[in-house]
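>> received
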Amino acid sequence: MADHETDGGEMPHGSTRGSEPGDRPVPIRWMSTTEAAEFLGVTLRTLYRFIDSGDLAAFKFGRVIRLRADDVETFIEASRIAPGSLDHLYPDTRARAADVGRSQSPVET
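>> returned
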């Protein structure tokens, strides 16, 4: 394989990310938009919306858009839902139970 070719979606020779002196450089693992969308389990349209809104970093090389696998993984972690933050998606059963308790008054004899 020539120096300018790569396998596994890595950048050509000499394209690496920040490393400390003495450390071996870590090559960037690139993903196509199709790979990233499949990895995230979303459509390409949704992936492009994440990119366009600035939520997910992407790079354009000529006519080709690529994403760093590390950025996709960081995006996944940043999208984690905090416990208790989905209350707006379902009715509050405690309030409903209190309402039911008020409407059922004891029967007087």
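>> The helical segments are 33-40, 44-52, 69-78, 93-103.
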